[in-house]
Write a structure and sequence with these properties.
Structural class: alpha+beta
Distance between the termini: 108 Å
Radius of gyration: 43 Å
Number of helices: 3
CATH class of the largest domain: Mainly Beta
CATH topology of the largest domain: Immunoglobulin-like
Mean pLDDT: 76
Length: 465
């Protein structure tokens, strides 16, 4: 939630959300509407339109449970109560529920304290107790005593976080006017149905004359509250004592908002609470693949059925592969883990809750291709070495042969200086060739053709007229 302690001039204000310092979207609601990631590389921030330079400190989500919400801020000024340096990061765990505990201290006197099932020793002093009076809300010291005959209702809140409230309680029984909700925040799946339930009481167990549900103003176009009258996707269920239910079917984004229950007593007195009602968030199911949509064979793969808000802890998830239901031996959970992924596991995966399904995500095995480049490079190098060796041995052999031929001619010139002669040098037989040349000719036929041509040319050069 994007919040500020300053009084905003525009109501409702427009909020801007950023993900990894990049603009994500702009919306009237202060609540973040996208999927929340617990990846350490993902950081979130927000700003109010018109004040984009005053961004909130970046925050990454550590964990979200039914009772707690843990985050880490990039700057420590959000943890000033811990006396942490502003240059250091700090972590805070916020509660997602509160309750008022009543203990009998003295005769006809009670002590009311605020408590949470989330372990928040460092935030305990921030809990604030209130009482609902005809003159409005008043703060109450948790060390003070409250008499049994008090007609006011009491509730708890987290200081500077007025959207998180406990149920209203009476000091002794139900001898006071109160309006409570079974759940103050509901996460509903798109296309499904939800029940928004209120529990009310009047002094003397009287029944209200009129019971109504309203949807709070959500944008500038909707100037007044919207009365939730019965229609196709809206039903008011009033067949239970001291409980009234607003049922919404075929949920869509248009149903996101805050809903409040109000009643009138028999003397037409409107009974309502000044604090928040029930916040409804509509989400879709999304399959998240880790580490990627294409993995190597034998790799561990984790599929998670994600939502933008936490569903109930007892939600039963169903997994599908190529539209076929997967029969899992373990308890159906929001995560599907495949320890050693193989080609038999390839396909389109989706998850479902009741009759609602997510979009499919394709998971494949990376195909391994043979890389011939190193082999080709090695073969080319070998051929180059072989060719160089062939040329070297041929030149060595030819040089040696030319030297012996020249010596013979010179000797003949010295002996027969008065005679002119023509002599063709005889070529040696195959068995008379050096061993290295024989080997090279067997290995490289190209060498033989080159050898024949070069030797013919050499014979012509050596002819004397």
């Amino acid at each position: 939630m994007c919040t500020t302690s300053c009084l905003l001039t525009e109501s409702p204000a427009a909020f801007i959300w950023y993900k990894n310092r990049k603009f994500l979207y702009e919306d009237w609601s202060p609540w973040y509407q996208e999927l929340v990631s617990s990846d350490q590389a993902v950081r979130y921030s927000c700003a109010i339109k018109g004040y984009e330079d005053l961004r909130a400190p970046e925050v990454l989500v550590d964990s979200v449970t039914w009772n707690c919400f843990s985050v880490t801020y990039a700057e420590g000024r959000m943890c000033s109560y811990k006396q942490t340096s502003e240059k250091q990061s700090c972590s805070i765990t916020f509660p997602t529920e509160l309750q008022v505990e009543r203990t009998e201290a003295q005769k006809d006197n009670f002590r009311l304290t605020c408590n949470s099932n989330c372990s928040l020793t460092d935030l305990q002093p921030s809990f604030q107790l209130y009482k609902n009076t005809q003159r409005g809300l008043q703060k109450v010291d948790q060390k003070a005593f409250v008499t049994r005959t008090s007609s006011e209702s009491f509730f708890c809140s987290v200081e500077d976080l007025k959207d998180l409230l406990s149920n209203e309680v009476c000091v002794d029984g139900n001898d006071c006017s109160s309006v409570n909700y079974v759940s103050r925040r509901i996460c509903g799946l798109k296309g499904s149905s939800v029940n928004i339930s209120s529990i009310y009481s009047l002094p003397g167990n009287l029944q209200p004359q009129t019971k109504l549900w309203f949807k709070e103003k959500i944008n500038m176009k909707q100037e007044t509250e919207q009365l939730m009258e019965d229609k196709d996707d809206v039903k008011n269920l009033d067949n239970m004592k001291n409980q009234h239910i607003l049922r919404l079917d075929n949920l869509d984004e248009k149903d996101i908002g805050e809903y409040k229950f109000r009643m009138k007593s028999q003397n037409d007195e409107l009974i309502k609470s000044d604090y928040s009602g029930v916040t409804l968030i509509v989400t879709e199911l999304l399959v998240d693949l880790r580490p990627a949509a294409e993995v190597t064979e034998g790799q561990r793969v984790t599929l998670t059925c994600r939502t933008s808000c936490p569903l109930s802890e007892n939600t039963n998830y169903t997994w599908y592969l190529n539209s076929q239901h997967l029969s899992l031996t373990e308890t159906q959970s929001k995560q599907l883990i495949i320890d050693a992924f193989s080609r038999q596991d390839e396909g389109n995966y989706s998850c479902g809750v009741e009759m609602i399904r997510s979009a499919v995500k394709t998971l494949t095995v990376q195909r391994r291709t043979v890389n011939w480049k190193p082999a080709a490079a090695g073969l080319s190098a070998a051929l180059l070495v072989l060719l160089s060796l062939s040329v070297f041995l041929y030149r060595k052999y030819k040089t040696s042969h030319q030297c012996s031929g020249s010596e013979s001619v010179n000797n003949m010139d010295e002996t027969n200086t008065d005679h002119t002669y023509e002599e063709i040098e005889a070529q040696p037989e195959e068995n008379e060739l050096p061993y290295s040349q024989l080997v090279l000719e067997k290995i490289n036929p190209l060498y033989s053709s080159v050898q024949e041509h070069q030797e013919q040319h050499a014979s012509n050069v050596m002819v004397k007229i």
